[in-house]
Design goal:
- By secondary structure, the protein is α/β, with parallel strands linked by helices.
- The chain has seven helices and ten strands.
- The radius of gyration is 19 Å and the shape is globular.
Length: 270
Amino acid sequence: MGDCRLSEPPSQTELKSARWNITRASKKARVLMLHGNAESGASFESKTRFFRNLLNACPSFPSGVELFYPTAPHRIQPASSTTGAGKRITPEEGDFDAWTWGFGDYMTEVMQGYELAIRYMLEVIRTAGPFIGIVGFSAGATTAHTLVSLAERRASPELMQNLQIDSSLLPPPFHFAICCSGFILSHPQYKSLYYPQIQTPILHFVGDLDPVIPEDHTLKFARRCKNRLIKYHPGAHFVPRGKIFQEVMLDFIKEWLRIDVTEVADGNET
């Protein structure tokens, strides 16, 4: 159960930037944590509590780390059910803590409501940031990648218009990201988010037994990142938390905080 395979050698390119300087880190560093589909910030926090202790033990953050868990803006409506007597009941909306970043088939469709979710997250970053890094799971990983790409000013003018985003609202690039079970939004509208490859270093986790997001979808997603590290875990659709995977996360973050990564160089892949 300690499998931690590397699917390919890490691709690394040093970028021109302002180095993360621990001598200037007088305040707690902030990391954005994005939940998956049908979850919430609170439920994701309960599943990733280990991350707080992990990062607070990192020497790169002498003042500690704050994790920020926003909830996606779209509530998933509860389904009605039938009692044994044939009476239909509907859960109270307030008791159904399930939220999503957008609606639709990520393989073929423009995601409905996704533009609102991205504008919402840019406002979160503006008011609660700055954030040094971002962690996402499943649909949250895809949203994290979108935010990383936008922060690198990758989106085409057409996509910016479709998302109804003004360039003045875009944050500075992140120093790192961790994505678990992510996937590409395949509709042509989103192409500029992935081509050319983004530069921000991203650690990708792939579950050997993931029944929700196929392995090839996550690998395709990962390969749109120039500075990537791909690791497998012997589990299903969840964020790995075993000791060996925590060590991988910590080593990845420490390594990239020693490299200049905040000013994004122009990619040369098409």
